[in-house]
Amino acid sequence: MSTIAEMELPAQEFALRTTLEHVPDAEFDVVRVAAHDSKHVLPYIWATADDFEELDDALRDDPSVDDLSLLEDLGDERLYRMNWVDQIRVVIHILIEEEATILNLRGKESRWRLRILFPNRDALSTTYEFCEESGLSLDVRNIYEMSDTRHGLFGLTEEQHETLMMALESGYYDVPRDATADDLADSLHISHQAISERLRRGHRSLVKNALAVGPGDGRD
Question: Is 135 helix (H, G, I), strand (E, B) or coil?
Fold first, then answer.
């Protein structure tokens, strides 16, 4: 069964270490990453910073970066393409050795958070062992087992998935609403407080795992 793991690494043990040291307010959100061989990783990265000139200088001087290209400049954030050529052992292992998929990868302050879809639980265990043997401080924060449905992809429990789908199908999210929280509670034979908590936790999981995965996002 496929397994999703949320993991953290110290910034000094990963790519862009020197950039984060010199531009501590910078934040990186990797939207796509591929490894074509054992020496290069090609990420597309959205970045924010108070001073983009300072960020560009730091990226050009970063020993883990090669072939830096600015693809989009939206004023308050920029999209870069680059090669990572140093401190990428764990990414190479995940993508090539374990044939896993990086769902989210975000760097902020002194940490990187990775959200990985592994083909099975053994691949996660092997990755953890690889990091221990390589002297990398991998911290596994959460583990989700995929089920026959897709709700595990977003960290939802079965009850949260059932409640959110019922809310959608009954018109709870319509404007104006065709169903209230009390209607959902009656259908599921639970209290108003219980339905409210399920909805809040389900919404939090969706936002956290689909939109805002990164170090310090949400509370574990």
Answer: coil
pLDDT for 70-119, tens place per residue?
999 999 999 999 999 999 999 999 999 999 999 889 999 889 999 899 99
Q: Residue 183 belongs to what H/E stretch? A: helix 181-188
Structure tokens at 72: 């989009």
Query: What domains are there in the chain, each with its CATH number?
Result: 3-145 (no CATH), 151-210 (1.10.10)
Q: Which is it for the CA torsion 92, 95, 100, 106, positive or negative?
A: positive
Q: In 61-124, where do the E strands start and end?
A: 65-73, 78-84, 101-108, 111-118
Q: What is the pLDDT of residues 131-140, one digit of tens each?
A: 999 999 999 9
Taking the alpha carbons of 124, 201, 163, 31 in that order, is the dihedral positive or negative?
A: negative
Selection from 153, 139, 133 nearest residue 205 by Cα: 153
CB 6 within 8 A of CB 114: yes
CA angle, corner 64, sides to 42 and 26, nearest 5? 90
Name, in order, each residue with C-beta under 8 angstroms of 199's C-beta and a sequence gap of 6 or more.
Answer: 163, 164, 167, 181
Q: What SS3 class is residue 82?
A: strand
Count the neighbouring beta carbons within 10 Å of the beta carbon of residue 193: 10
Closest CA to 24 of 5, 51, 42: 51
User: Which has more pLDDT, 186 or 155?
Assistant: 186
